[in-house]
Structure formats: C-alpha cells, structure tokens
Amino acid sequence: MRLFDPRARQVTAQQARRYAMFEILHTIADVLAALLFVVGSILFFFEQTQFAGTVCFLVGSLFFAAKPSIRIIRELWLARSHKVDRLAGRAPEGPPMTDG
Length: 100
Prior knowledge:
With about 100 residues, this protein is an all-alpha fold. The protein has helices spanning about 15-45, 50-90.
C-alpha cells in the first residue's frame, strides 16, 4: 500500500471511523492554529499584550506542525492495519481473503 494514495485502499467500517477521527483532529488543529494566529496578531498591536501575542504565535505554530504529523500517523496506521488484515486473512481460522 502506498502512503497517501486513496485508490490503494479497501477501507473497513472501523478504518473509516478511524480515518474520520484523524480528519477531525486535523481540522481542529487547523482551526486552532488559525485562531491563535489571528488572536496573536491582534494582541501584537498593543505593547502591553505583545508577550501574550507571541505565546499565541508559538502555540499556533505548534498546531500547524501537528497537522502533517496527524496525517502521517493516519497513513501509517492505515498501512499497518491493511497488512494486519492480509495476515489475518491468511490464518487458517481467519476469514477468507477478498484482495490479493
């Protein structure tokens, strides 16, 4: 299975739920990063709140950094679960294999 290639997958219901969970996490990180950058920008206009603005920028940057990490973890999990499904299909007591 090639990472980040949606055509290379047969997704089970459990995998679809997990995929959706990762997409929700990615979206939450996106929204929080954007909001923190907007708040940081506003706080940076005033000298007495510049430190708080800098903290918002830093935390927002961490959320931006989390986004690709979430995607990589999702793809690795899907690749691993696909391999586990193939191994389970080869087990004598397992369900019959439907893909190669």
